[in-house]
Amino acid sequence: MVTAARKIATYEDLFALPDHVVGEIVDGELHVSPRPSLQHARAAGGIFSDISGPFDRGRGGPGGWIFLPEPELHFLPDIVVPDVAGWKRERMPEMPQTPFTTIAPNWLCEVLSPSTARFDRGAKLAVYARAGVEHVWLVDPMVQLLEVLTLDAGTWRITQVFSGDAVVRAAPFDAVELELANFWAR
Q1: What is the rounded radius of gyration, in angstroms, for the C-alpha atoms of the chain?
Q2: How is residue 101 annotated by DSSP?
Q3: Residue of 57, 23, 47 lying closest to 110 (CA atoms)
Q4: For residue 4, is pLDDT > 60?
Q5: Separation between Cα atoms, residue 57 and residue 22, nearest integer Å
Q6: Three-state secondary structure readout of 117-157
Q7: CA angle at 117 for the pair 11 and 113, rounded to the nearest 5°
Q8: What's the predicted TM-score (pTM) here?
Q9: Is 110:136 a contact under the CB 8 Å cutoff?
Q10: N or C: which end of the chain has fewer CB within 10 A?
Q11: Quick check: 139 pLDDT over 90?
Q12: Using CA atoms, how far apart are residues 92 and 8, in angstroms rounded to an integer?
């Protein structure tokens, strides 16, 4: 019996997708997700807003970072789009003049939704570990939960878990208190 060879997804496959979806390529497979819900977008926006002031702009915090919402990351052959990502300025001293980057962020955040949680927790975490991302936040706005993962010898460890409306110091941004209520604001 002859089995048809699986088609390896290409960058061109991403361009062929309609605008109302997000496409990513992991392990040669094209993954297509719907655009995030407004609650998802609100959580990602709250996180971006709360950490970029003190850590990117240095307002009330140490500065020294660059943050981007939904950057396209090329860790060939994988192409992924986290909800928010951050680079220490030593790792990315200047913004590339391209629509994507191959520089692995030091930190990134995935806001979980029912349609993406399995992919975010599974295949994408494996990609991030291979790329050397040091910290990942998994945020679930439905249950108001923040999990902080730290890469340790190639394996993810959950190092902090926060929930509800707590005021927290979450690695790697523990120099400043963050109000989780801002992430879930309705």
Answers
A1: 17
A2: B
A3: 47
A4: no
A5: 29
A6: HHHHHHHHHHHHHHHCCCEEEEEECCCCEEEEEEEECCEEE
A7: 100
A8: 0.94
A9: yes
A10: N
A11: yes
A12: 30
